[in-house]
Amino acid sequence: MENFTELSKYAKAFSGLTPEREASLLAAGPDIKPHLPEITEQFYAHLLAVPSANRFLEGRVAALKATHLRWMEGLFSGPFDDSYTQAMYRVGAVHVQVKLPVEFMAGGMTILQQKLSDLVYSIYQDSPGQVQTLIKSINAVIGFTLIVMQQSYQASTIAEELDKFLKISGISRILFANLAKAYKD
Ligand code: HEM
């Protein structure tokens, strides 16, 4: 079981998601949130143009758009506490279950960074300081989320591979755990 307090601390330190940046995301929420449905549309239009992404989206686009919009609204509402980390860790595992390649996470987040940056420039074009602050905050929260989701990808993939190995080899989980404990490299 993952320690979500430790994972939050680690991912925040790495991505630079400071309390000041969290506060700037929340403060911008009322300006940004009304535009997020457009960003969702642009995100899925972009994904649908990626040939390898298509088969994961067929028949699900409407539901995914709603889920995605809710998640993006959360980026400008917070809180980015251990529950957020735990929820995004689970979302990473859901993507492993649907066999989404790991690079789709980084690819998806990159698209969002571009769309959200364009939005910030257009809303705050007369306040360069505000643009700079918000872009750094958006990059930080997206980086934070990506680290959590990828951590979960790694753990879920290893767990799936181990299950497969135990099934094929007929070794019990207890025997495997004892062998692993006894093995010294
Ligand atoms: C980049 C950031 C992404 C975020 C934050 C995100 C977020 C989510 C969330 C919150 C869920 C719902 C999980 C649940 O069942 O509780 C989900 C499910 C899913 N996502 Fe993503 N997603 C991302 C990228 C992508 C991409 C790039 C694709 C495909 C090209 C994708 C395809 C899916 C699919 C197929 C499901 C499962 C839907 C189902 O259960 O039918 N996601 N995602």
From TrEMBL:
The lineage of its organism: Bacteria, Pseudomonadati, Pseudomonadota, Gammaproteobacteria, Methylococcales. Transmembrane segments: none annotated. Pfam families: Protoglobin. Residues 9-154 form the Globin-sensor domain. Gene3D superfamilies: Globins. It comes from Methylomagnum ishizawai. This is Protoglobin. InterPro entries: Globin-like_sf (IPR009050), Globin-sensor_dom (IPR044398), Globin/Proto (IPR012292), Protoglobin_sensor_dom (IPR039379). One of its GO terms (molecular function) is heme binding.
